[in-house]
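Per-residue structure
===
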Amino acid sequence: MAIWLTTDSEANELLDREPLALLIGMLLDQQITIETAFMGPRKILDRIGALDARTIAEYDPEKFAALCSTPPAIHRFPGSMAKRIQTLCQGLVEEYDADAAAVWTAGDPSGTEVLMRLKALPGFGDVKAKIFLALLGKQRGLAAKGWQRAAGEFGRKGTHLSVADITDEASLQQVRAYKKQMKAAAKAAAAQG
């Protein structure tokens, strides 16, 4: 099953083919639409000609920030996200010899170990790491023992809670409806508290 996180088939193909693209898209997935976040890797590829952790890590920071800011920008906050992407890629170079997939494949890790590795990446907190783990398990064939338990609620089958559950336009709308419902519930709870 191919990844479907944008309405652009070339961007989806890149996400499907390149583990680094998927990691960068997940990193960008905050305070913007899912489709915009996961289009970010394609914009970077189009602008520098490569989507390679070592290339991005070594790119001149000012020039990288500028290319991330060029309309259409990769994010609402392109400067800070450019720094985060470079920091992520520098970490991948140092820890995994620039191989993004090694985060979840090196040494035949358990689901718990993959979750710990993801949480150690810059910009990946607990929830983002669990969602990405669920995405790997549900859509990328991750066979790490215990990944569903480690991913928590995001690892459950038949849900529409996060990007891990998006496979087409309809499931995207179901995830959006769920997120809207959660925001409304949080707002109501805050008003009562």
Summary: The mean pLDDT is 94. The radius of gyration is 16 Å. The longest helix spans residues 169-192.
